[in-house]
Amino acid sequence: MKKNALFLFLTFTFFPLCSCLSSQWDPKIFPCSNKLENPYGIISHLTKENADYPYLAKEVAIMKRIGINSVRLDFAASQIKKDSNGWHTKIWDTVIDTLKASDIELLPILDRTIAAKPAWVNVSGYHKYLKYTLEKYGKDASTWELMNEADLYPVSITYDSSGKRKKTFDYSASGAGYMSKLPDFYKYIKSISPSTKVLFSGLASDKNGFLDTICVHGGYKYFDIMNIHCYLEPEQIPVVLKRIKRKMDKYGWAKPIWITECGMHTAKNGEKWRTEEEQASRLPRIFLLSFAYGVDRVYWYNLRSSEKDSTYKEDHFGIMHADLSPKPAYYTYKTLVSLCPNGSTRPRVEQNNDMYKVNWVSPDGKCITAVWSKKKRKISMKTKGNVRYLNSYGKRIAKVQYASKDIIYIIGKVDFIM
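Above: the chain sequence. Below: its structure as tokens.
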């Protein structure tokens, strides 16, 4: 009994690292590669003239500096125009050419409405939209997302006596509607562009019943990659991923998974903890935990904050200010990508209460460990050979004695952390 108690004490008190990668706990729960393959994404409204299109060249240059592999953007049906030369989408052409020149992939989001009607209602109109879009641009993107957050459509909007707007969602109707035409749209996309991978509709929530409706009717047969949106704190993301895995197991299916939206706004809306520094702290923790649990690609929402209204949260999700000057999260994203670039081994995570250790091997063979704790706590560690310590911004620091929510990167071999 005493031997068992000692074993448990050593297992849960120490983070042993006998080699570059810990073999104690490997929590991957989805089909995924053992090495990271173009894992870093960002969202930018590059196809919208009243949003990021005027900043196209500058934003793409910023993505390149960070090391971002893919940008997620809208391909709205309303942007398909007709003139004397026929149908065209000049903005899409310009955006695609600019991204290609910088070797950045695009993840286009297929529209969910045609002429103000849901795609599953205006089916003939949606077929025409798919035909035009995929025949012309199908080869410009390997993966296409079949609508954004279909679980939030349709929505009814009402106003109370004070004029405050209230949204009401009918998840049953949206699930039934999307499912009714999902097989049709999937097969139609494949008939036009057979090599295209179809990404599910990034769900705003996995708990509103929409995904269950899809699963009950076998809808998982009609997309190639599962995706979800998650705006929770980093350490809650594994909880969401485990729920999705349980649904897969319940209904007998498995797919690779992407997180196509995550993030945190920094609007001045009375929540004092919503600082730019907190946003910067969360970003690398979200990516590393997601990768460790088997997520193949993560998209941060978003690149540039419009900052039109200081209290409106939608205007403050970006890692850049409206004038494209960096917020702190720009630097923590850039540091993460430089230390865990494309081709790194998939990070592995170990958790001891509120303390996390994630380690991986970079393509050039460096052993790298990221350490943080949700609550500040004293730590000690044993290392081998020449070891460097960096903060989450990539600045070199002295050997650390405390872990906090801000990641510490350790470059070199670590025997254990306690």
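Residues 164 and 264 are 24 Å apart (CA to CA).
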